[in-house]
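Aim 2 progress update. The chain analyzed this quarter is reproduced below.
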Amino acid sequence: MKQLTRIITALLFAFTAGHISDAAAPPPPKLSNAFFPFCIDWHDAKKRSFKEQADMLKELGYAGVGHIWLDKIAERLKTLDDAGLKLFQITMKVNIAPDKRAYEPQFKDVLSLIKGRGVQFCLLISGMKSSDTAGDARAVEILREMSDLARESGAQLLLYPHVNDWIERIEDSARVAEKVDRPNVGCMFNLCHWLRADKSRDYKPLLVKAMPKLWAVSINGADERDEKPGWANYIQPLGRGSFDVCGMLKTLKQLGYKGPIGLQCFGIRGDAKEHLTESMKAWREYSARLVADQK
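Predicted structure tokens:
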């Protein structure tokens, strides 16, 4: 009987010690950049509500989400607040054509909703031929007006390079942001659009030049080259594709970039939870690898 008691006691001690050890284990090292997905609504096979999205993102370890367009902002904020998550970005359109409305009047109402939350507005700017500097003066006028409107809210305005838009390249974003010369107007680098618009694959000098105003970056899994139309190979879950995303993150880290990093999810079909789980796994692996490199 004494022998049996000793065996049971030893087993209980080993089981308890194992659980204590697991609980006390430090979390894996990670980059300090906030990591969040955007464009997760449109192609999710489960068609999740905002609340379901927030619950899913919380479970998977994301810091928040990016929102597309200016509608339903109040609902999005409520579901994120309830989950303890952040609204990082709102994407909206701007048109610099002289005969078009520059931006939606709803912008002013949304600014009051997000006041003090540190939200970034990602501006898709069209209205002229891509990269045409003839549009700079009109753009500066519009963006300074928007900057004035946004100042009290604490929001930032990011010039979002998008293939076939007037602001198509990070060079366009940096050039115009410099001309606007406002403390709340900056740049964003988008991997998938850079891959489509720029054939050089030499991103470092572009990032160096943009750094003073580079306040957001988006990444995703991607192939190095894809001559076919569409985004199937230039937007994949993180960890897939032949392009070295971790190498680009290393460059950003070396340049001192500390801003948020968005995960582009446009066009990725199926259950969003599956590809978001895959991408988070890759992000944690990249993050741990880059933190370990500095030791």
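Confidence is low (pLDDT under 50) at residues 4-23. The chain is about 45% helix and 15% strand. These observations will guide the mutagenesis experiments scheduled for the next reporting period.
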